[in-house]
Amino acid sequence: MTVPRTICLGFLALILVGTGLLTLPISLQSGQWGDVLTALFTSTSAVCVTGLVVVDTGTYFSGFGQFCVLLLIQLGGLGYMTATTILLLLLGRRFGLRDKVALQQTLDIEELSGAVQLVKSIVALTLLIELMGAIAMFSVFSQTYSTGRSLWLALFHSVSAFNNAGFGLFPDSLISYATSVPINLIITALIILGGIGYQVMMEVFFWGRDRLKGKPNRTCFSLNFKVATSTTLALLLLGFVGFLGAEFRNPNTLGQLDAPAKFLVSWFMSVTPRTAGFNTIDYGRMTTTGLFITIALMFVGASPGSTGGGIKTTTMRILFECTRAVLRGKEEVLCYRRQIPNTLLIKAIGVVFGSVMTVILATVLITLADPSIEFTLVLFEAVSAFATVGLSTGITASVSALSKVVLIITMYVGRVGVLMLMLALLGDPKPSSINYPQENLLVG
Amino acid sequence: MTVPRTICLGFLALILVGTGLLTLPISLQSGQWGDVLTALFTSTSAVCVTGLVVVDTGTYFSGFGQFCVLLLIQLGGLGYMTATTILLLLLGRRFGLRDKVALQQTLDIEELSGAVQLVKSIVALTLLIELMGAIAMFSVFSQTYSTGRSLWLALFHSVSAFNNAGFGLFPDSLISYATSVPINLIITALIILGGIGYQVMMEVFFWGRDRLKGKPNRTCFSLNFKVATSTTLALLLLGFVGFLGAEFRNPNTLGQLDAPAKFLVSWFMSVTPRTAGFNTIDYGRMTTTGLFITIALMFVGASPGSTGGGIKTTTMRILFECTRAVLRGKEEVLCYRRQIPNTLLIKAIGVVFGSVMTVILATVLITLADPSIEFTLVLFEAVSAFATVGLSTGITASVSALSKVVLIITMYVGRVGVLMLMLALLGDPKPSSINYPQENLLVG
Ligand SMILES: [K+]
Ligand SMILES: [K+]
């Protein structure tokens, strides 16, 4: 069993187990057998940490059902974070693409026992951050709800936020907390930490430890660290300014809020497309410009080695640096005084091309199945599903069964990744040893 | 004066001269001074061979005005075709990107005198094809109109079709000829020839001549030939099947036609996004799926060295072959047993990234200026302007002045190309001689 196949089948198995659990009468508030499509949709959405829902999690599912959803989120998020971190570390060892693929082909998952220490570290860090988030949120929720309810709410939302899952127990996501400073800061902090990747967090940790110990500061941040943090910051700033500009006078979103609240909500809107999926405003009443900016940010998504989805900040950055290189007439792509290997350029193109094709296919299929729904809303939903974001303009529950199946497949493909899925399906790639002559073409 | 600056300023100068001509009282049917914004929009649209219009060309402009439009189309189309063919031939000489850019910097346009022969050949081929198209169409139009009017109609539509300009003299483009087999075949043939590129036509010509002469057939088609023709064919087929599927039961487009007419109109719909811009159905009444397919096809556009726009079939093919290479675990990108140089991959990324950003920026600005217009229609218009297509869902004339200015700039940027414009603005790129170490990143 190759690594890509193990990952793809692992997610599939988890989704199917989850579907089984979520149809049980014990999982439902009503105590009856649940609808299979609803269970499949919810299970896929949870395992892929997407957050799109066709039923209200807080009222449709019983406490046990909600616990199952939370477990699926945690397993899905941790599983993805672990798998991508291992790939990231393997890549760090200067393997070429061909070596890496060959490695993935030969390396059985059992041989990865050296990674056990890494998995332990990831699990510990995850639980620590989630616990801190839960404690912080408990202090807010306990002002309104009973202790037991507050504990459950705090735990659920903390796990969901760190895993960028977007599932919530309130029917309106976090709209009622739109102007609550503590909830906004706690949730956005969890989202950003969950979306920045394990490696980046560990580098900050080691850097901080070295500084505290008064050691001569010789930590050299990796290229991944620099690219992930700077691109994330740029996207946050871009989103913040964009949403503030687009929604400033929209009476349905920012228009009727005072200045500090406008900033707070814009900040949240800018963080949540990093594939978190919580919302503090109604995306169905956003301006077209706002929806468009959200679609673009969702498609880019989070950083590698994290719980988030999308094409990843690093991929986006490579495309950006390529464009800069072309404009400067350079033959190699540089980023922070490091040269980006050509195999990475090819892979970045493959990722983006495959992703765009998947989104286009999903959008076309949904518009064919539900021709009455406006195009923007369908595109928004498709990108949200693909990048495992979970934001919605409110159409998820009302689309036809066929569109729901399309969304389920899109969430799955978006999570395991187009390339990973194709590698799993195609199997053994045989590198050719023939060298063909180069020939030029005019592009653009 | 560098080549990029010459091209950018040349187009700008032609647009401004055209604007002046089209404001003159003699150019208007009404005999009064024309609106400057309307003249600027029409002149840009004509020079960039786009075909978006804010007034009906056939009734707003006088015979002289229409002649000016036709002249601007011919100069704009020929100018672009010549410039890109020269670049294509220079590339054929195995220059790297750095050499090419350096060459463009040092090579004054006056030194291109060796290209005079090439320009003569391009002009001759263009006029020959346009003449044949005009004669063929005259035989159709003369059944309905007087000889003089038929001549003018045939000439205007032939030149407009070969230059992929999309300007017509009928207020409804070619909707009244939707089921006319001769007009459909003549126009689509002109569009395809105009969009395939000079080099491809010449290779076919030489191949045919050698075969006729009974010479041993040793013509070796270039990579550009193979990529341009096969990708164009694939796009035509994809569009044909897509439109037939999407519009089959739409009563506003294909629904009420008989089977042969359904095929004919689908064929036309599949050809015209190769940035021609004529239409035989009302795009404002198309299904969302159909609009979406059109947007995708328009963005790809035509082949290099032609009159058409878009990111070009070759760029699209490189992205596709990259994706295939990644899935097969290969480190180099192959296409017809030729290796695609890495500089070309970088350039392809630059072209697509720059193009997507331009379209996003234009779309956001228009949705901000005209928030009441549906998003799909705005995106359709922005892509149509950028890829110099000229198809419209009918909003062009009714958008605000600000949006019209955005469309004018988008048409110009789309025509000269994002990279060309940036090179013209930035000037002298200085290639660095420092070699930086490689470092890996996880993408996707
Ligand atoms: K999510
Ligand atoms: K056109």
Low-confidence stretches of chain A: 93-111
- Give the strand tally of chain A: 2
How many helices of chain A? The count is 17
Helix % of chain A is: 55-70%
Keywords (chains A, B): Cell membrane, Ion transport, Membrane, Potassium, Potassium transport, Transmembrane, Transmembrane helix, Transport
InterPro entries (chains A, B): Cat_transpt (IPR003445), TrkH (IPR004772)
Protein name (chains A, B): ATPase
Transmembrane segments (chains A, B): 33-55, 67-91, 122-141, 153-171, 183-206, 227-246, 283-302, 344-369, 375-393, 405-426
Task: Walk me through this protein's architecture.
Two copies of one chain form a homodimer. With 444 residues, the first copy, chain A, is mostly helical. Chain A has a domain at 195-356 and 387-392. The first copy, chain A, is 63% helix and 1% strand. Chain A has 17 helices and two strands. Chain A has helices spanning 3-23, 36-47, 57-60, 63-92, 97-106, 116-141, 147-162, 181-196, 198-212, 223-247, 259-271, 288-300, 313-327, 342-369, 375-386, 401-416, 418-426, and strands at 334-335, 338-339. A two-stranded antiparallel sheet of chain A has the order 1-2. The model of chain A is unreliable at 93-111 (pLDDT under 50). At the A-B interface, helix 4, helix 5, helix 10, helix 12 and helix 13 of A face helix 4, helix 5, helix 10, helix 12 and helix 13 of B. The structure holds potassium ion (2 copies).
